[in-house]
Write a structure and sequence with these properties.
Structural class: alpha/beta
Shape: globular
Number of helices: 2
Oligomer: single chain
């Protein structure tokens, strides 16, 4: 008898950071996550971040250096927004905070795609995306012949 195993979905993502206070401020203030819990011991600092009481992201202060895009592991972290207007509101908020963007404004995921969003970096250089599945029709794709989220 073969048992049926249900499909998996992402539970939460854990990121190593160099400065928990700086990263916590970014993910809380720039992206709107709420602190669900914290570990404050000097050698074991971490923060659980979520939305509507659900854990989404854990920050672990245990990195010695910035994000290394050429190393194996996390390529980028993508967040889904409800509407293109939400994406544009996040873009405005992030710009007001001086966040570094990979591309100028909202871009399509590929040539002629209806999906897309904004691409930027957290304080440690981790590549981030906020996107929607539709609503980006007519926006340019910054990289011809390849997914936008693959090479920023």
């Amino acid at each position: 008898m073969t048992s049926v195993i249900s499909g998996l979905r992402t539970g939460h993502v854990g990121l190593n950071v160099t400065d928990l206070d700086r990263s916590l401020a970014f993910y809380r203030d720039a992206l709107g996550f709420k602190v669900l819990g914290e570990g404050k011991e000097e050698e074991r600092r971490f923060a659980f971040l979520g939305q509507d009481g659900e854990l989404v992201l854990t920050l672990w202060q245990q990195a010695d250096g910035a994000f290394a895009p050429a190393s194996a592991g996390l390529h980028h972290l993508a967040f889904s927004a409800g509407t293109i207007e939400d994406v544009r509101a996040f873009e405005e908020r992030l710009r007001s905070l001086g966040v570094e963007f990979a591309y100028e404004g909202v871009v399509a995921h590929g040539e002629g795609a209806a999906s897309g969003g904004i691409f930027f970096h957290d304080p440690d250089g981790t590549r981030l995306e906020i996107s929607v599945p539709v609503g980006v029709e007519g926006e340019s794709a910054p990289i011809a012949g390849a997914p936008t989220c693959g090479f920023f």
